[in-house]
Specification:
The structure is a single chain. The chain is mostly helical. It has helices spanning 2-33, 39-51, 58-63, 70-82, 89-97, 108-129, 137-145, 151-163, 171-176, 182-194, 201-206, 213-226, 232-237, 244-257, 263-268, 275-287, 294-299, 306-318, 325-334, 338-354. The protein is globular.
Length: 357
């Protein structure tokens, strides 16, 4: 009995030491990635450090608020907010206020630069809306009501205002559902789902049978985000849609509904010929407390398709699937894609943080 207790004690000590060394190894990798010359790599590292809740990275993230790239500044501000630090708010406001002065008479190069600048400003507006800080409402109102403002900045300002409790501008997106332009319809669906606009449910249901797959897909996902239980039957019928993008959205939408009676339909989708459809079904099954797709998710870590590999890593991280740890660590050693490697490191840290399934 004494020998058994000693063995258990030693195993516990080894496990603690291993976990600590593992954490330090992968955290060091993520922190080193902050020094990358590639914006996409640096951005992924910033996101990962905030999503795993690493408060030790706050000082480094604050320094990145002075990075030459506005994209890095924005991502750092968002990451800091997730970690409970609002020091990036003023940087976002500064980017938003830096409106380019350009007209149609200006040379194409100048107009192109202004277009790129306004895209960044729109991203900053979107980020500011995530701060849940009502003191920014006047700034957002100013952008939303400026008739000479870039359309993307205006749209993001209205969306951010809606998230902060001011839904007075949302009707423009509801009317967008009636547009003859499928791209406008699709964008309207995405926005209305994002802000969970209950008034749009009726029109969104009608769009589930729209001829365009993008509109069907966006309407389907929007209804899931809103949590419209009345549309469940119609969305289930889309699980057999001819276009995989619609089947993916249908699977994701049903998972968001939180209705466990949907589980049998999602299980059937595990036989779909498209791997991403199957992974989306697995994701939704996990949301509903069903892990019947676990083995497929773990096997998909080794997929040749990059999207499938990333999706499987995301699922494993989200639901802390501990059975995938060995395979993740093996893949980390082999993976050459730096962004995927960061996602793997983040998943391993997330699983080890609180244990997993």
């Amino acid at each position: 009995m004494k020998d058994k207790l000693i063995f258990v004690f030693l195993c516990t000590i080894f496990s603690i030491c291993y976990s600590k060394e593992t954490k330090e190894f992968y955290l060091n990798f993520l922190n080193e990635s902050l020094n990358s010359n590639e914006i996409t790599v640096k951005t992924e590292a910033i996101k990962s450090l905030s999503l795993i809740g690493d408060k030790s990275s706050i000082s480094k993230l604050r320094k990145l608020l002075n990075d030459p790239s506005d994209t890095i500044k924005i991502e750092s501000a968002i990451a800091l907010y997730r970690l409970g630090d609002n020091s990036g708010k003023d940087i976002l406001i500064k980017i938003i206020k830096d409106k380019p002065n350009v007209s149609m008479k200006d040379p194409p190069v100048k107009r192109a630069k202004a277009l790129a600048k306004n895209l960044i400003r729109a991203q900053a507006v979107k980020a500011l809306g995530e701060f849940n800080d009502k003191s920014v409402i006047p700034i957002l109102n100013e952008r939303a009501k400026d008739k000479e403002e870039d359309g993307r900045v205006v749209d993001e300002s209205i969306i951010s205002l809606t998230k902060l409790g001011d839904r007075s501008g949302i009707d423009i997106f509801i009317s967008g559902l009636d547009s003859s332009d499928k791209n406008v319809k699709e964008k309207a669906c995405e926005v209305l789902g994002e802000v969970k606009e209950e008034k749009a449910k009726g029109k969104l249901r009608q769009l589930l049978s729209h001829w365009d797959k993008g509109v069907r897909s966006s309407a389907c996902l929007a209804l899931g985000k809103i949590g419209d239980k009345e549309s469940i039957k119609s969305i289930i019928s889309l699980l057999s849609d001819k276009d995989e993008v619609v089947r993916i959205s249908a699977a994701e939408s049903l998972g968001l509904m939180g209705d466990k009676s949907i589980i049998p339909q999602l299980r059937k989708l595990l036989e779909d010929p498209n791997g991403l459809v199957r992974l989306s079904a697995c994701d939704s099954l996990f949301k509903l407390g069903d892990n019947s797709g676990e083995s497929f998710v773990i096997s998909s870590i080794s997929a040749q398709d990059t999207d499938a590999k990333i999706k499987s890593i995301q699922i494993i991280s989200s639901y802390k699937i501990k059975n995938a740890l060995d395979k993740l660590e093996e893949l980390y050693k082999q993976e050459e894609n730096q962004i995927i490697k960061i996602k793997i490191a983040s998943a391993i840290l997330n699983i080890n943080k609180q244990g997993g399934n």
